[in-house]
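Reopening this ticket.

The earlier resolution said the output was attached, but the attachment link was broken on my side. Pasting everything inline this time so it's all in one place.
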Amino acid sequence: MVVRLPHRSPTVDAPAWIPTGDQIHDLHKQWAPHADAFDLVHTHCQIVWRIAEQLLAGRDHTLDVDLVRAGCLLHDIGVYRLYDASGVLDHGSYIRHGVLGHELLREVGVPERVRRFCSHHTGVGLSREDVLRQGLPIPVDDYLAETEEERLVMYADKFHSKSSPPRFVTAASYRSGVGRFGADKVVLFDAMVEQFGEPDLASLASEYGHPLV
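Inline output:
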């Protein structure tokens, strides 16, 4: 299955284009190496969108909801490129999934403002200094959320993990874990909690059958 991108003339403002739900679903189907990978990644992306929707509900905001939706549903698509020929996920290279997703979406013609959700959602943001200090196997650059849409997708992603088994993660649990990367990361996370609030994870955990930790 190959995703079909809309025909655009040179006069059309390409950055204004956002993939539809059907196109995003087709991209997942196209790149998932097998059904289990599709279920793991696509379900996680759907959950992140459900969390973001919940955080936006009833709030006054100026965020582009369609852009947030696309960002949530595509942010982890690069994970598919970490599966080897035998269908096994390379956990050791997981940090690369963001830049791999950015590359994948560029190859199929997705606009940059959507591609950025892949490379700019890891943790609470990776700075150039983080990449150098930790010796991360990605190009040395800043991978920080720069727009409110990017901040929301990054934040919503923190509340669900694709671990085995998948699980929902409370703000307290995430705060405890991110602290090992430095007190500054806790400060960044707490700022997002203050800005967006905390989602109702219990209802989602019950719906999806994933534990809440």
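Reporter confirms the inline version is readable. Residues 6-13 have pLDDT under 50 and may be disordered. The CA atoms of residues 120 and 143 lie 5 Å apart.
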